[in-house]
TrEMBL record:
It comes from the Bacteria. It comes from Catenulispora pinistramenti. The lineage of its organism: Bacteria, Bacillati, Actinomycetota, Actinomycetes, Catenulisporales. This is Uncharacterized protein. InterPro entries: Glyco_hydro_b. Residues 79-88 have a biased composition (Gly residues). Residues 75-97 are annotated as: Disordered.
């Protein structure tokens, strides 16, 4: 509140579990409320401890890196990449890609490529084509089970874990 916020929406942070068909908690909050689902009396196990971050929280952390300093959305194309999903046509099986791609040219000239593997069970391999003169300088990623966003310098990865989110930052070689 001291920095200008006039309200905080607690529900968005900690909404609590409810029934899901996939055996998950169904918590739409950013952080775990640490409670047990009251509408699932037979379910064993409760949410992780209060404050444990869920996937949307970590993904929001990744996106703050992408959107840093403004920028321009660029066109992207995905092809192949697994079974089902959206984002393109797999030339070998005729099914859509499960990897979605988004790119932004930030105000400082850095390209930020966001890759989301929407397949809940299989890692996906991609081939990233970038404009001439650009090279990957840093990759940020998160996958289920991680407690924080990981970061590494150097070449961009080509394989992405199930249900993972990755941001690849590229700069002009120089």
């Amino acid at each position: 509140m001291q920095h200008g916020a006039s309200a905080v929406d607690w529900w968005v942070l900690y909404s609590g579990p409810n029934s899901t068909s996939d055996g998950g908690w169904g918590d739409l909050g950013l952080l775990s409320s640490g409670t047990c689902p009251v509408d699932q009396p037979g379910k064993t196990g409760c949410e992780p401890p209060t404050g444990t971050s869920f996937a949307p929280y970590q993904t929001m952390r990744l996106l703050t890196t992408v959107l840093k300093g403004g920028g321009q959305l660029l066109a992207t194309t995905t092809t192949g990449g697994g079974t089902g999903g959206t984002g393109g046509t797999d030339s070998t099986s005729g099914t859509g890609s499960t990897v979605s791609a988004h790119a932004i040219r930030r105000a400082d000239g850095t390209l930020a490529v966001v890759l989301l593997n929407e397949d809940p069970q299989q890692a996906q391999t991609i081939h990233l084509t970038v404009p001439c003169g650009y090279q990957a300088v840093r990759t940020l990623s998160w996958q289920p089970g991680d407690t924080a966003v990981s970061s590494h310098a150097g070449p961009a990865p080509t394989t992405f874990a199930p249900y993972s989110a990755t941001v690849i930052l590229l700069r002009r070689a120089g």
